[in-house]
Design brief:
Blueprint lengths: L13 E5 L5 E3 H8 L3 H9 L6 H14 L5 H6 L6 E6 L5 H15 L4 E6 L4 H13 L4 E4 L7 H8 L4 E4 L9 E5 L1 H14 L4 E6 L5 H15 L11 E6 L5 H11 L8 E4 L2 H13 L4 H4 L1 E6 L12 E4 L2 H17 L7 E4 L2 E3 L12
Parallel strand pairs: 3-4, 3-5, 5-6, 6-7, 7-13, 8-9, 8-10, 10-11, 11-12
Antiparallel strand pairs: 1-2, 12-14
This protein binds alpha-D-ribofuranose.
């Protein structure tokens, strides 16, 4: 009968997939087919390691044959978890986040969790909307790259009882677990690469300084140049800042038109992420400019496409997959350990040098 409950209290008895006679397969249909108890079927669904492999396979085959699909909503109503986790990122069209989601998904799948991805495009209102939806869907935890510096609504969400791990953003005072990459270090290694290659006038194309990653990358430039700008520095290095409204290909393409009449003494361009750099490349190529044959270009993230564009893009490598995987593991620890203490994981970026920044030297 639909709605049958399992003998061991597993109440996902009501399948949601019609059997051949049009009825929804139940946990009883599976038990009968596999010639095991309701409890054994429930164990296969909830704790498969407890069931002998041969029996487990027989039950899984019966689930396949009967078309049984467990009803998580019914299970939730009786106190079971949703086995779902949300991940809220800035921009799902940015391969940086796609790879990060992949890492989180792999970690969560190992423990039987579903991942629900949401993209805020940097909007605090959209972030609030998604947090509300995820709470209504009773997700067991959320991984989030905050849409802005204000963490209040995320902290409030957490304080209402849903574990949260920050990704690509550190917590202000350890109130949440977080996984980040040292973007100050990343900005430093990018500009140092250009300076060591002889560039003395460098254009920095940055996203909005309201984005923490953009601020830290720019701060890293100053850290690297600090020693170079001492009064005794033999040669002066100038960084010209250009801020664009978003860290997107479109913003890079748009700004490339301004670069056509770039100051000829600028011999290198650093972009705050690879999408901007790829947009600059596309814009210059569309206008027939050969600027990139004379000017070095460096991006940030080292997304998959960076090695595929031409010239291949020099970029600061962020361990995108590892960011997502590590954040999901921290969340799983918090879900399984009542004594969990929040902590931060911080990765160090490194530079991947490719054609876009080599074989170019500063003007004579
Ligand atoms: O989303 C903006 C940027 O921040 C991404 O490209 C990645 O660099 C992240 O850190």
């Amino acid at each position: 009968m639909a709605g049958d409950s399992g003998a061991d209290g597993d109440n996902s008895g009501t399948g949601t997939h019609p059997t051949k006679d049009g009825k929804k397969a139940t946990i009883r249909d599976v038990a009968k087919k596999a010639k095991v108890s309701l409890g054994t079927v429930s164990n296969v669904l909830n704790d498969p390691e407890r069931v002998a492999p041969a029996t487990r396979n027989r039950v899984l085959k019966a689930i396949e044959v009967t078309g049984f699909v467990r009803n998580i909503a019914a299970r939730q109503l009786r106190g079971g978890g949703s086995k779902a986790v949300g991940i809220v990122i800035l921009d799902s069209s940015n391969p940086f986040f796609t790879e990060m989601i992949r890492g989180a998904e792999d970690a969560l799948r190992q423990e039987g969790y579903l991942l629900i991805a949401c993209s805020t495009d940097g909007s605090s209102d959209r972030e609030a909307m998604y947090l509300r939806h995820l709470e209504e869907h009773q997700v067991e935890g959320v991984l989030i790259t905050p849409s802005n510096d204000d963490l209040d609504q995320i902290i409030d969400f957490h304080d209402r009882g849903t574990p949260v791990v920050l990704v690509d953003r550190e917590a202000n005072s350890g109130e949440l677990c977080s996984v980040t990459v040292d973007d100050v270090k990343g900005g430093s290694i990018a500009i140092s690469h250009l300076v060591e290659d002889g560039h003395r006038k460098i254009l920095f194309v940055n996203g909005p300084m309201s984005i923490r990653q953009c601020r830290d990358r720019r701060a890293g430039v100053d850290v690297a140049l600090k020693g170079q700008r001492s009064p005794h520095a033999t040669d002066w290095i100038e960084v010209i800042d250009l801020e664009v409204p978003s860290l997107s290909i479109a913003a890079g393409e748009e700004i490339s038109l301004e670069l056509l009449n770039i100051d000829p003494s600028i011999s290198a361009i650093m972009c705050a992420n690879d999408l901007l750099a790829i947009g600059v490349m596309r814009g210059l190529a569309s206008s027939g400019s050969d600027l990139l044959s004379r000017v070095a270009l460096v991006g940030y993230d080292d997304i998959t496409f960076s090695s595929l564009v031409s010239p291949a893009l020099t970029s600061v490598h962020q361990p995108q997959y590892d960011l997502g995987y590590a954040a999901a593991r921290l969340l799983l620890e918090e879900l399984s350990d009542s004594g969990h203490r929040h902590h931060e994981i911080r990765f160090t970026p490194d530079l991947v040098v490719r054609e876009s920044s080599i074989k170019k030297s500063s003007p004579a």
